[in-house]
Amino acid sequence: MNEPKVVCIIVTYNALRWIEKCLSTISEETIKIEIIVVDNNSTDNTVDFIKNNFPKVQILPQTKNLGFSGANNVGYEWAKKADADYIYLLNQDTISYPNTVAKLISIYQKDSAIGVVSPLHLNDTTEKLDKKFEDYITAGSCPNYISDMSLGNPKEYYSIGFVNAAAWLISIETVKKMGGLFSSAFFHYGEDSNFLSRLRFHKKKCVIVPNCFIHHLREERAGKMSAEFEKKKLSIKKVEIMMNVNVEYNKAVSTLYRYAGQQVFKRNFSGAYELFTYPIFSKSSIKKIRESYKTQQII
């Protein structure tokens, strides 16, 4: 078998405080990995820092912020043209360990049903799992993981319902069959959940690997989401619900309306109105995007 070619895609936006550790810790001895940075029009000298300190890194600077979704799509198209076998989506605020990607590829090649493979996410200090990552692991979402790890009998990998796209390895072939990487219905947040719902539609699974790690450095800003983002969370959730292609359209509407009812109970009347009217005013575009997920050319 030929040595696989991997393109590591890192989307940056004002990443100066993290990017040195992120780039300097990516180290692979047995595979060919090319690192590209898609910069979302940073204003903090991120691009110049990378040019001056990491000359081998390919930089794709954008003239506007495309969001996490759009920027990763730029990277994916670049990787396709470069004849990559895999893409490795890596967050700007991560620290890696040697040969992480090689380990992930070895797992990917063990099971044709695998569509996404992820390492475990540690916190900033290595003392424990990243809090949000730990929340993803339940008896229902990740069967047998808790029992096996508690009893010292880990398997090579475990299926999981969701893990955020801070360190995803995906084959180019899988993304092609799914019609593309991230949907234009999402800008930042929700695109990874949507991708995994599409992945399930195409009978593939997401897995995590117990003996493989990255650090996701987000404890320092825990609980510091902007007021503006808090307002957007409802909008992200409504699109996430309606774009789940595994749920029939009318059932998705029912789920959305139950969520709207919760907002009424919380006296968030403007939020409830937004949710109630979304499938009324946007029915045509919602259905068009949902149908595209069943093809090899998503919207």
Give the topology.
Blueprint: E1 5-12, H1 19-24, E2 32-39, H2 46-53, E3 58-61, H3 67-81, E4 86-91, E5 94-95, H4 100-108, E6 114-122, H5 131-136, H6 145-150, E7 158-159, E8 167-171, H7 172-177, H8 191-201, E9 205-216, H9 227-242, H10 249-265, H11 269-281, H12 283-292
Parallel strand pairs: 1-2, 1-4, 2-3, 6-9
Antiparallel strand pairs: 4-8, 5-9, 7-9
Brief synopsis:
By secondary structure, the protein is α/β, with parallel strands linked by helices. The chain contains 12 helices and 9 strands. The strands form 2 sheets. It has a 5-stranded mixed beta sheet with strand order 3-2-1-4-8, with helices on both faces. Strands 5, 6, 7 and 9 form a 4-stranded mixed beta sheet that branches.
What does this protein structure show overall?
The protein is α/β, with parallel strands linked by helices. 41% of the residues lie in helices and 19% in strands. The chain has twelve helices and nine strands. The strands form two sheets. The chain has a five-stranded mixed β-sheet with strand order 3-2-1-4-8, sandwiched between helices. Strands 5, 6, 7 and 9 form a four-stranded mixed β-sheet that branches. Helix 1 (19-24) links the parallel strand 1 and strand 2. The radius of gyration is 19 Å and the shape is globular. The two termini are 34 Å apart.
